[in-house]
Each structure stands twice: as C-alpha cells, then as structure tokens.
C-alpha cells in the first residue's frame, strides 16, 4: 500500500514533468549557467583553479536543487493539488517519499549533464575515471540534500516569502552534505585516489541520509497536519 | 512575574558590574597574557549558547510531539537567546584567536559547528518573523534538523585537524583563575534564566491578549 502510493506520486510527478519539461529544462539550464558563470569568474588564461571542480559542482547542484524544490511545490500550490494529495486516504509519509524520489531523479538527470561539463571546463577529467565512486557520492549527497529540501519546501508551501526562506533554512542544515560531497569528490581528483577517504565520506553521507530521511518522515506527519 | 524575579535581576546586575573587577584581579595566564581575559566572557557565553541551543531543540521536539504552545514559547525564547549568546561567542572567539593562534578565523570543529548552529538559530528567527501563519511548526522542524545536524558537522569537520583548546582546559586551571571564571559562568547563567523567563512571559501575555481579543469579537 505504502509502496504503491509512493509509486503513484512519483509517476504523477514524472508524467507531468515529461509532458511539460518545465522544471527539468529550467533547472538544467540554470545549473549550466551557474557553471559557466564560475568558469568566467575563475578560469584564468585557460587554467582552472586547483581543486575547484568539486566545490563548483556541488554549489551548482545546491543552487539548481533549490530552484527545482521551489518550483516542484509551487506547482502543487497553484492548483491546490497538495491539499488533494494530503487528503488522499494514504499515509502522509508516502507523499513525502514520492516527492523526494521525484526530486532525486530530477537532480540526477541534471548531474549527468553537469559532471562532464565541469570535467571539461575545470580540467577535472579524473572525475570520470572512477564512475562508480562518483555515482555513489553524488547519489548519497543528492539524497541528503533532497531529504531535507523536500521537507522544508513542503513545509514552506503556505509561508509568505517562501522563495527566499527555502535557501535561508536549507543551506545551514545541509552543511555536512556539502562538506562531505565536496571533500569526497575532491578526493577523486587526487593523483592517488585514497579509497579509505572516499569510503569515509560516502559512509558519512549515507548515515546523514538515513538519519534525516527518518526524521523527515516523522516531522512531515507533524508539520503537515493542518 | 514571580517574586524572585526582581531580586534576581538586582543580583545579576551587581554580578555583571563586578565582573570587570573580578576579571582584572584574576592572575595573568603565563603564555597568553592579557588576551586570556577574553576567555572570561567567551567561555560563559559559549556555554549559554550551547544551553540555549539544546533547550530550543528539546522544546521544539516536545512541541512537535505534543502541540502544546508552552513548549513553542520556550523554543522561541531559547532561539533568540542562542542568537544573542552565539553572537557574543563568535565575536569574542576571533578576538582571542587573533592573539592566541595568530589568525582571526580557523575552520576548526567547534568554531565551524558554532557558526552553523548560529546560522540555524538566525534562520529560525527569520522564519518566525517572516514565515506567516503556521511558521511555529516549521520552526520546530527546523530546530529539530539543526540539532540533528550538529554531530554530522562535528564528524565532517573533525576529519580535518582541530586546534581549538581541549575541553579539559577548564578543570585544570589554577584555583585563583578558576574562581573568577566560575563567577562569570554563574553571572551569565543568571542572565540567561532571567532573559528566558522574561521572553517566555512576553509571549504568554501576547497569546493571552490574542485569546481575549478573539473572545471579545465573538
């Protein structure tokens, strides 16, 4: 029952997205513009700053993710469909999980374009040499970011000035995700990749995901009651 | 207000008036000299910052679980105090660090987690101020997440080295240095309790006023 509700919500979001493409295209274009802005600001005489690629990749993900989170829930608000979702005879946490998976899927699609772009513009071809590690860190980091972000965006749906409040609330809480994501990705760029370091950051991100998804499942019920 | 409030205010004022004298009479720390005196304000405010953060987190969880507005008022008051004492901590810290470590700012574990927790507290207040109706529950959720975040910041930053003085510094200080320090801690604690009481009381009065206003309109 729970899994079915999650699947239905996810499928609904993906269908709307495939038909309109609104959030996917805007988010993607925004993320690419971010990377280009960083390139114009930081690449000098054709040389990228050392170790910059990892940080810039994650900043772009965080910025684009914030935009996507805001838009996803704005769509639910405009036609009052979130109320309909919450009134549906299903467990509230299923709504959260469905939304979370939708955001993660969207951000991963964006990252598939971003990673090669960063690798080319910031001389970070080493990123692509260990795709499994990179995929693991990106997935765990994105899930952590989206776990907190989905809850906050859902909570803020009725708040005034929600567009400004989302990053204000979200960024301090995802500091560990940013540190672990950036350090983990930067470890991939070292000449000798230390898998112990990679393993540490991946484990930290995974623990963060488990703790914050659990907390969000509990909080979602409590904050979405009225 | 309870009966003890005014006397406690007077005691607190006298204690704070006395702190400069107490601190001035405390012995010089051999290696750091005069700059060590900052410690008498830095450490008590850092402790009160931690205390208000913990209080805000616990009160928020209880509010989310029970929906009792009393816990919400406590959480709000604690968050405001966290911003005040956090600011004191974050200003006095670099003043000390410049002299003691030769740099204004280090990304050490306690400095970083203090900064991030302070940002969460500021975000909490921004949310309460500009969030509109229903922001009480959202703020409680934010406080819960902010509290859960602290161990993760600790672990992630700890993976780099830390040069902040270890917590064991305090008990090993000589008695004549420890006494002024504890004097300051008690003064700050008293101030914390008084401000908290005052702030919670203000919110109580506000909510009573709202209730009266609503019932008068019906």
Which key terms come to mind for this protein?
heterodimer, A: 226 residues, mainly alpha, 81% helix, B: 218 residues, 7 helices, 80% helix, flat
Strand content of chain B: under 5%
Mean pLDDT of chain B: 85
Largest sheet of chain A: none
Morphology of chain A: globular
Strand composition percent of chain A? under 5%
- What would you report as the Rg of chain B, rounded to the nearest angstrom? 20 Å
Report, as a whole number of angstroms, the end-to-end distance of chain A.
24 Å
Number of strands of chain A: 0
H and E order of chain B: HHHHHHH
Oligomer kind: heterodimer
Walk me through the structure.
The complex is a heterodimer of chains A (226) and B (218). With 226 residues, chain A is mostly helical. Chain A has one domain. Chain A is 81% helix and 0% strand. Chain A contains nine helices and no strands. By secondary structure, chain B is mainly α. Chain B has one domain. Chain B has seven helices and no strands. Chain B is flat. At the A-B interface, helix 6, helix 7, helix 8 and helix 9 of A face helix 4 and helix 5 of B.
Which helices and strands occur, and which strands form pairs?
The complex is a heterodimer of chains A (226) and B (218).
Chain A: H1 2-20, H2 22-42, H3 52-78, H4 81-87, H5 92-121, H6 131-155, H7 162-173, H8 175-188, H9 195-223
Chain B: H1 5-25, H2 39-66, H3 69-100, H4 109-130, H5 135-158, H6 169-172, H7 175-217
Put the structure in a nutshell.
The complex is a heterodimer of chains A (226) and B (218). Chain A is mainly alpha-helical.
